[in-house]
Write a structure and sequence with these properties.
Shape: globular
Structural class: alpha+beta
Number of strands: 18
Radius of gyration: 26 Å
Distance between the termini: 59 Å
Strand content: 5-15%
Strand order of the largest sheet: 5-6-14-11
Length: 524
């Protein structure tokens, strides 16, 4: 900041960074600006109606790291099935290993693990043993309170975060449930009366407003990949990332590392003075669900370019097929209570009817078989074909089904199946061009999935005389460009993540394509 104020807390005693000469920082927050020999190119600013945000202090190129953040209060999600409280692997019904505090764990080693010690000490010291898995909802506040007591700089960052206490108190039933099942047992049963009601409630509120959910991907770099059936979901707070605002067309993406730390990278070029944004929702979340999530979890209504365009930037991501004339039903306004009206005949649906239809389709999609890829392919193809009578082919639920179908087409052999896989890749890439432009991991995955069938189809066309050698080489060079983009989308991830593994495979494919082009040029 030009006036010498700290980039994070605005303290007046900031010192200019001698590496980037773009940011002032106080002694407390200097380590937040520079980590791993990188100067992060942002400062905390404020926008009317939004609050604290991150602002770029220079032009930032795609895939630049703009933030590392360590996890705070890591714990199982509410309603979690039995998990190990150290490594978060899912547990069988009879695990056979129970810690002295009463919580089931996956091993004696994990019973002694550092993540588990905060709650273990409280339960053991108070002579209380875990009785019910509903007690999982106490884990994150306990761990967060313990970490805040140990780290004053963390406490200072925590105090800057919003907890929406007033709004949550209006939800009287939920507020009372938290007091009865979280606050009271911690203070009375676990003998932590020195932890105030307000402070524990604030931990819950800060987590609800600023926390993230993620799936376990490993424990440390180099550990084997875990199968979906082995892993649980966790809730975590990233205090430095929390000021980042939401956009349904963000310019940054987050990636979770095997140790649960977080890396934030730009997805495309960001100009100096531009706000850095991330998405709070999943890719295939439709308009109504997004709007309701925003109000329920973060207490705001989004007004980004996607949310103020009822066609969702022309993607028809939320368009319903009119039951009367077969034309398109779209919301007649941009607010969550808007009526959905046919553009041709004027037929109407209220938003609750739209939600009900989408919930039916979501439940049907979840019934996909898991035994064989052939059964999954047949299921998804039928699902897409049948439900195009109800929703637009570009609707969020059908696009999610197309993504699942793409992954089910593991190794298509016939021309027809390879053509279909390439078609699915094109549909998904066209969607990403509109609603998630830039160098993203999901784009990299789709480009990788398209590479094998595209190459095999080119070979078939050459062998069958449908194209000559010149055309083959030209199209092969186009595939080379797409694979270079694929590698760029996947680069920079840490060992132990799936993106790191996929980048290695993509580089091998790219190398093979380059060698094929060199060989083809020699033949010409």
């Amino acid at each position: 900041m030009e006036d010498g104020r700290c980039f994070f807390c605005s303290a007046a005693d900031g010192q200019l960074c001698d590496q980037c000469t773009a940011v002032y920082s106080c002694t407390v927050h200097r380590s937040l600006h520079r980590q791993n020999n990188l100067c992060f190119p942002w400062r905390v600013g404020s926008l009317d109606g939004v609050g604290r945000v991150l602002i770029a202090t220079r032009d930032i190129q795609p895939k630049e790291v703009v933030l590392y953040d360590a996890p705070v209060g890591l714990g199982p999600v509410q309603g979690s099935p039995p998990v190990c409280l150290q490594c978060f692997r899912l547990l069988a019904a009879e695990t056979g290993v129970v810690c002295t505090c009463g919580f089931p764990m996956c091993s004696l080693e994990c019973c002694k693990g550092p993540r588990h010690q905060a709650e273990c000490r409280l339960y053991t010291a108070s002579g209380v043993k875990m009785q019910d898995y509903e007690e999982y909802q106490r884990i994150m506040p306990i761990r967060m309170m313990a970490e805040l007591e140990e780290d004053s700089s963390l406490m200072e960052r925590f105090n800057m975060l919003m907890d929406h206490k007033e709004e949550r108190m209006e939800e009287k039933e939920n507020w009372n449930i938290i007091n009865e099942h979280v606050v009271r047992p911690i203070r009375e049963d676990l003998c932590k009366a020195d932890w105030s009601v307000d402070r524990i409630q604030r931990c819950v509120g800060v987590t609800r407003t600023n926390g993230s959910s993620c799936t376990v991907i490993g424990l440390k770099e180099g550990e084997r990949y875990l199968e979906d059936w082995e892993v649980g979901k966790v809730r975590v707070l990233y205090p430095s990332m929390s000021p980042m605002s939401h956009s349904c067309i963000p310019n940054c993406s987050t990636s979770q590392n095997p140790d649960f730390s977080l890396t934030v990278r730009t997805m495309r070029r960001v100009e100096r003075g531009e706000e850095l944004t991330i998405s709070y929702t999943r890719l295939f979340t439709g308009r109504l669900q997004r709007q309701r999530d925003f109000m329920q979890n973060w207490f705001f209504q989004c007004s980004c370019p996607r949310c103020v365009d009822v066609t969702d930037l022309g993607t028809n991501f939320d368009t319903i097929v009119c039951r009367q004339c077969g034309s398109s039903l779209l919301p007649n306004q941009t607010n969550p209570e808007a009526v959905w009206q046919c553009l041709q005949c004027g037929d109407r649906l209220d938003p609750d009817q739209v939600v009900q239809l989408e919930q039916i389709l979501e439940r049907e999609l979840e019934e996909a078989p898991t035994d064989s890829s052939e059964e999954r392919i047949q299921f998804y193809e039928r699902f897409i074909q049948n439900n195009q009578k109800l929703v637009h082919p570009g609707h969020s639920i059908l696009m999610k089904a197309k993504c699942k179908l793409l992954m089910a087409y593991e190794n298509p052999r016939s021309r027809k199946l390879m053509d279909r896989k390439c078609e699915l890749c094109r549909d998904l890439l066209n969607l990403l061009d509109r609603i998630l432009p830039g160098q993203t991991e999901v784009r990299g995955r789709i480009l990788y999935e398209a590479s094998a069938p595209t190459f095999l189809l080119l070979q078939l066309d050459l062998e069958e005389g449908k194209i000559d050698t010149d055309t083959f080489v030209k199209q092969l060079k186009g595939l080379e460009q797409r694979m270079e983009e694929c590698v760029m989308c996947l680069k920079g991830e840490k060992e132990g993540t799936y993106a790191f593994y996929l980048e290695e495979k993509a580089n091998k494919v790219l190398k093979n394509i380059k060698e094929m082009i060199m060989f083809s040029d020699f033949l010409q």
